[in-house]
Design brief:
This protein is α+β, with helices and mostly antiparallel strands and 291 residues long. It is 21% helix and 23% strand. It has helices at 27-31, 52-64, 126-134, 152-159, 240-249, 270-284; strands at 16-18, 36-38, 43-45, 70-72, 86-89, 92-94, 108-110, 117-119, 140-142, 162-166, 178-180, 186-189, 192-196, 205-209, 213-217, 221-223, 228-230, 257-260, 266-267. A seven-stranded mixed sheet has the order 5-6-7-8-9-10-11, covered by helices on one side. 48% of the residues are buried.
């Protein structure tokens, strides 16, 4: 739990604050961008909520923070528990409750008539378990790569779900029920296409759903500072030279949503998103990109 004695002095005065246990994972800045900003290696409250909508967003940030580094003076965020998983569009939800073990990585829930999917994993939360149960359970858990598996094994055991991961990432989930191989796209089910994208890690994969939603793991994301799609050479754990063609590959696919494990999500019309992908593919070829 956040504590006032560790509160950063540069927080805006008022109900919400960030303390010194913050790991600068960006979760709160995604969930409540009107209240939280980046500071010197951590987040802080730049402005206290001004209305009910902003107050609700800040409460959600309290719940999503993987290190419980956000506090409320004289209150708690329990009223926002039932907001999660948070609907984005067409049965696709942001799970919330980001996990410290995945450095605050995002995860997503897809409510689908053929069986529900979890993409990467939140931390184990009874409230989420109840919500997933009410929605019909989880049949498959797609894991983009080793960094963001969090509590996937617990969710798989509880729901009898099939975990899907590339063989090169298998040591992070050695009991996974479905192991992917190679670099060719794989149609896992109608509307669900796995596209291997080695680079960030050796077996990194993205998942394209309905030619509309691209779950990108740590492959790339939307940068609020650049106002463009972005990738990181400095946070590429395997091979930047492999990641460049993996990014270029995705210029040949149609999608409207970029739903990353880390970084900002983004929704654009399909043709505009394609242009943004083409700009990113051009940019990453520059030798100093991401430095």
């Amino acid at each position: 739990m956040a504590t006032l004695s560790k509160r950063y002095a540069d927080n805006a005065d008022g109900e919400f604050y960030v303390d010194s246990t913050c790991i600068d994972c960006d979760t709160c800045r995604q969930v409540a961008p009107r209240s939280f900003i980046a500071a010197d290696g951590h987040s802080l409250v730049s402005a206290q909520p001004k209305n009910e909508t902003e107050h609700r967003e800040a409460m959600r940030a309290v719940l999503c923070c993987p290190t419980a580094s956000i506090g409320m003076v004289g209150g708690n965020a329990k009223a926002a528990l039932d907001d999660f998983p948070l609907l984005l569009e067409d049965g696709v939800h942001y799970c919330g409750f980001n996990s410290k073990t995945s450095f605050g990585g995002n995860s997503y829930f897809v409510h689908h008539p053929g069986g529900n999917w979890l993409i990467d994993s939140p931390r184990w939360m009874p409230v989420l378990v109840r919500k997933f149960e009410e929605a019909g359970g989880i049949s498959r858990i797609f894991l983009t790569h080793r960094d963001d598996v969090a509590d996937a094994d617990k969710y798989a055991a509880h729901f009898g779900a099939q975990r899907i991961i590339h063989r090169d990432e298998l040591d992070s989930q050695p009991g996974a029920e479905h192991v992917l191989d190679g670099t060719a796209p794989i149609q896992l089910a109608p509307e669900f296409l796995v596209i291997p994208t080695p680079g960030h890690t050796s077996g990194h994969c993205v998942l394209l759903y309905r030619d509309k939603f691209l779950f990108t793991g740590d492959h790339f994301w939307w940068s609020r500072n650049k106002k463009a799609l972005s990738a990181s050479r400095d946070y590429c754990w395997d091979s930047w030279q492999r990641q460049i063609p993996s990014i270029e590959l995705l210029t040949h696919y149609n999608f409207e949503w970029v739903l990353p494990g880390h970084g900002e999500r983004k929704h654009l019309p399909v043709q505009k998103m394609r242009k943004e992908m083409e700009k990113l593919a051009t940019a990453v070829k520059q030798s100093n990109y991401g430095k």
